[in-house]
Amino acid sequence: MPSLAATRAETEGRAYATSLGLRITDPYGEVGPQRRAGWCLVRALAQAGTMGTVIARWPDAIAPDGAADTRHREIRWLQDHGVRVRYSWAPLAAADDGR
Questions:
Q1: Coil vs helix vs strand at 53
Q2: 22 alpha-carbon distance from chain centroid
Q3: pTM to 2 decimals?
Q4: Contact predicate 40/71, CB 8 Å
Q5: Higher confidence at residue 13 or residue 74?
Q6: Is 75 in contact with 62 (CB distance < 8 Å)?
């Protein structure tokens, strides 16, 4: 049974994606992104140039271990492949709205 925080995060992320007209490819689940089939698909789509945006609740959700160096490396990799990284958590989403 997911926790209230996890349920809230999923609901928030789905609402954010819907508001932007985006499809959810990686529904989360496993904490380490590189162990999730959905995240592997995200990377494959980015590498193929067929994905334009990744939405995560916060930057740590992109790193397999939550480490800053891993997170920054993964975000840079996505950006180098033309993918914009956005966040669904309200404070980060608000900061990103003007970009």
A1: strand
A2: 12
A3: 0.66
A4: no
A5: 74
A6: yes
Nearest to 12 by CA among 99, 93, 96: 93
Task: Give the largest CA-CA distance in the chain.
Answer: 37
Give the tokens for residue 29: 């689940």
Return d(Cα 40, Cα 49) in angstroms, integer: 14
CA atoms within 13 A on the CB side of 76: 6
Residues 6+ apart with CB under 8 A from 72: none
DSSP β-bridge partners for residue 85: 54
Whether residue 49 is predicted with pLDDT greater than 90 in this model: the reply is yes
Tens of pLDDT, residue by residue over 1-48, are 567 777 777 787 778 778 878 776 665 555 556 666 777 888 888 999
CA distance 2 to 92: 23
Q: Which residues contact 43 (CB under 8 A, 6 or more apart)?
A: 77
